[in-house]
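Closing statement on the S-adenosylmethionine sub-project.
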Amino acid sequence: MSQLKPDVLAAYEAAKGFMPLDEGLALYDAAVGAGRLGLPLLEVGSYCGRSTLLVAAAARESQVIAVTVDHHRGSEEQQPGWEYHDATLVDPELGLMDTLPTFRRTLHRAGLEDHVLALVGRSPQAAAHWGSRLGLVFIDGGHTDEHATADYEGWVPHLAEGGTLVIHDVFPDPADGGQAPYRIYRRALDSGAFTEISATRSLRVLKRTAQGV
Ligand SMILES: C[S@@+](CC[C@H](N)C(=O)[O-])C[C@H]1O[C@@H](n2cnc3c(N)ncnc32)[C@H](O)[C@@H]1O
């Protein structure tokens, strides 16, 4: 396991977000390994920057860039009236979720701003305009089938051979959570192009061993 620096660990624990520490450490470890390819490390779904910190810290170690994509308007379950809504993240003028200011504060406080290229917009549009290979694709954006499938089909073709695919919120048992991330995880394995490296709670780490989606 790669050792997370104490200041990054403290920033992670202080940041708003949903990822428990053991999953975060597994993500960091995967991102450090992926960084050795010398290619950008991509995250879909940055929210307030909690997981972004880890990808950015790994990018800093490998002297590559972390790229993160989010429209910052929140997923379905983060909207008013839903389980994961946080009223402090609503823009008072527009009455819409806006996680971008908190995301920026999180990265600034951790001293990691210079290691992140933040794309603000819809993931499929960003993927359609993306032109280079990636060492890591970490999918933690919208959790509907429409969004998870679009993230998979948009970004996985850019993942280099030997690169790492990480998927969050993979629940084989429907009683534990939504099935869309599980379905893209299964799709990756069933394609024959990926081998599973680790499973930490709902975080799955796969390595690309062949071309294909
Ligand atoms: C579960 S949160 C990400 C949490 C973050 N990875 C963490 O662990 O701290 C999902 C994020 O995906 C974003 N999102 C959902 N659908 C999206 C889409 N189609 N394009 C861009 N961002 C999207 C939401 O705005 C939200 O911030």
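The beta strands are 41-44, 66-70, 90-91, 96-97, 116-120, 134-139, 159-167, 194-200, 203-208. With this model delivered, the sub-project is considered complete and its resources will be redirected to Aim 3.
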